[in-house]
């Protein structure tokens, strides 16, 4: 059995996050790329009833949140789903793959945000100020997105306190953009504009049915609701996590869901679903143009730019902290758990996750990355919900939040339903990309097993 001495010599992570910062962290992580970049894609799947998949995605995420709250209260440490999987099933391979899937989802989500940064909102600003129309796939746009990822790494390295405080500012900015959309919708209703009948229209593709159309749109919209689970990977950097997590997570998810539904209603009121689908990641820019022609479009483009920056920042924070926890868990080489002696941040994990993000930004497509992120997390959430029920056999020495039994049961069923190919209506590309990523994880697991042999996993090392 490997010695844990190297980890005990590492300084502890700085507990800089209080209840208000955690609430902003949850809201800021949920708001962002999903609603700012994928509204048009969801409209293309569902039609005018655009609000419905966002509402259903919230319900599914809310059920799973109860499981996370029970588990983070019981085990307030970094590594999140990997820790819960290990404690529940004690299968080394399953623990590794869950941890790897979560890490990949964070990086793919951040990469999606980086692409939205360059290919949608930055391009719009270039048009507004310099009358320059670059191709979304141009080397210049890709290069700027890579520089943007590197800048996030520097913020991440400086420390979690600086990162979450930057998140507060960016969350307020991205929230203001969505409020603008909602106010535009309210003004349109007051003036008799818009078409309310669109709100009940469900587009059913040839050879499909209403249920499959709604499910397919919900599976994609679920990408907009992910992020709440990232906060559990910050547990070791929170003050009194057992106490502050339930209120911050549930309030944060509720606020985000209400905003999403109102934005979706506004979008459908003002613009037909086929036009939203054609606009793609620029759908909200189109809403502003139609609903408030006199509003300076560059202001909303700048807000959208900052919104996707915030999403990328938080996801890169999560991915690096997860690697840190995995290293202490001895699932991956221990040097990933190295903490900088002065900044007290896991700097090697930050460098590694940044490198992977740069590769994805250079080669991937935003829609496919969004779908893949959703799929990976739905698989993980299914396992976490089951783990929550299994771990109730293990008693805790301290009081913590306990979810009603129906929540993890329904959470596991609904997450699995949205992940299974023949019920979710997902495109094949989601499964192909996820398959490649998980195959890469399998290769890493085999290499680690050959190099170091079978090692017992010690969950208590995650907190060191």
UniProtKB/TrEMBL annotation:
Domain of life: Bacteria
Pfam annotation, one family: AA_permease_2
InterPro entries in the record: AA/rel_permease1, APC_superfamily
Transmembrane segments: 21-38, 50-72, 93-118, 138-157, 169-190, 210-228, 249-271, 297-324, 345-364, 370-391, 403-421, 433-451
Subcellular location: Cell membrane
First-listed, main subcellular location of the protein, grouped into a coarse class: membrane
Membrane topology: Multi-pass membrane protein
Keyword annotations: Cell membrane, Membrane, Transmembrane, Transmembrane helix
Full protein name: APC family permease
């Amino acid at each position: 059995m490997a010695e844990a001495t190297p980890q005990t010599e590492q300084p502890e992570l700085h507990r800089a996050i209080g209840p208000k910062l955690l609430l902003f962290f949850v809201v800021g992580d949920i708001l962002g790329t999903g609603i700012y970049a994928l509204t048009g894609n969801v409209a293309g799947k569902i039609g005018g009833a655009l609000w419905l998949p966002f509402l259903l995605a919230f319900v599914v995420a809310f059920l799973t949140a109860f499981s996370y709250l029970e588990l983070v209260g019981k085990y307030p440490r970094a590594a999140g789903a990997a820790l819960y999987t290990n404690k529940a099933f004690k299968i080394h391979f399953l623990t590794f793959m869950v941890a790897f899937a979560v890490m990949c989802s964070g990086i793919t989500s951040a990469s999606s945000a980086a692409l939205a940064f360059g290919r949608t909102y930055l391009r719009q600003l270039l048009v507004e100020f310099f009358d320059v129309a670059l191709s979304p796939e141009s080397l210049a746009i890709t290069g700027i997105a890579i520089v943007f990822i590197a800048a996030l790494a520097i913020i991440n390295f400086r420390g979690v306190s600086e990162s979450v405080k930057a998140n507060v500012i960016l969350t307020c900015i991205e929230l203001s953009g969505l409020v603008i959309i909602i106010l535009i919708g309210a003004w349109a209703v007051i003036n008799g504009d818009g078409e309310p009948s669109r709100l009940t229209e469900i587009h059913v593709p040839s050879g499909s049915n209403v249920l499959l159309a709604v499910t397919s749109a919900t599976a994609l919209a679920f990408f907009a609701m992910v992020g709440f689970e990232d906060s559990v990977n910050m547990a070791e950097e929170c003050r009194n996590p057992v106490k502050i997590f339930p209120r911050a997570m549930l309030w944060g998810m509720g606020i985000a869901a209400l905003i999403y539904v109102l934005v979706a209603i506004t979008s459908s009121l003002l613009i037909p679903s086929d036009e939203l689908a054609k606009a793609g990641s620029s759908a909200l820019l189109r809403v502003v143009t139609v609903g408030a022609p006199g509003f300076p479009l560059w202001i909303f483009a700048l807000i959208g730019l900052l919104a996707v920056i915030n999403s990328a920042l938080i996801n890169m924070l999560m991915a690096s902290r997860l690697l840190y926890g995995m290293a202490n868990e001895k699932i991956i080489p221990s040097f990933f758990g190295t903490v900088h002696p002065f900044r007290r941040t896991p700097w090697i994990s930050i460098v590694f996750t940044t490198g992977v993000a740069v590769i994805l930004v250079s080669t991937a497509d935003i829609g496919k990355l969004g779908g893949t992120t959703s799929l990976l997390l739905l698989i993980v959430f299914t396992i976490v919900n089951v783990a929550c029920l299994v771990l109730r056999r293990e008693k805790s020495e301290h009081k913590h939040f306990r979810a009603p039994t129906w929540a993890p049961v329904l959470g596991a069923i609904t997450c699995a339903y949205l992940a299974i190919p023949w019920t979710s209506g997902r495109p094949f590309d989601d499964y192909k990309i996820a398959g490649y990523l998980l195959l890469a994880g399998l290769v890493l697991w085999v290499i680690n097993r050959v190099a170091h042999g079978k090692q017992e996993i010690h969950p208590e090392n995650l907190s060191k």
